[in-house]
Amino acid sequence: MSFSNLDTLYRQVIMDHYKNPRNKGQLQDGSLTIDMNNPTCGDRIHLTLKVDDGKITDAKFDGEGCSISMASASMMTQLIIGKNVKTALQLSQLFSNMMQGKDYGEDIADDLGDIEALQGVSKFPARIKCATLAWKAMEKGLKEEQQ
């Protein structure tokens, strides 16, 4: 597939998650609630995670933000549901590496699912905070839970 076609596909995936977000809403019985914002652009997220026996059994998000921020939250919640906390934190590190343009292990790219569509954001430093907001919220909540 040519770069142009791949770029178009990635944009379509991002817009699909933005217009039809997965796991949008709030968990009433969520064991973790995390609120974060990006003051430079106004993005904000309210993330609720249900963690049972070290496994993320449900995740929902709500908030306001640009297409990249909200699509990233949608993709992240889809990816982490059913994962144990350790794996979710490892995926967050992989995503962070991808956003920073670092090697994130092409052999595990399949593990990232739709998230890989956001790799082009790394070329726009001002947008990296948008893409990582939900991930930072998830990390914060899970790390606080572990303490």
Automatic annotation (TrEMBL):
Pfam families: NifU_N. Residues 10-130 form the NIF system FeS cluster assembly NifU N-terminal domain. Gene3D superfamilies: 3.90.1010.10. InterPro entries: NIF_FeS_clus_asmbl_NifU_N. NCBIfam families: SUF_scaf_2. This is Nitrogen fixation NifU-like protein.
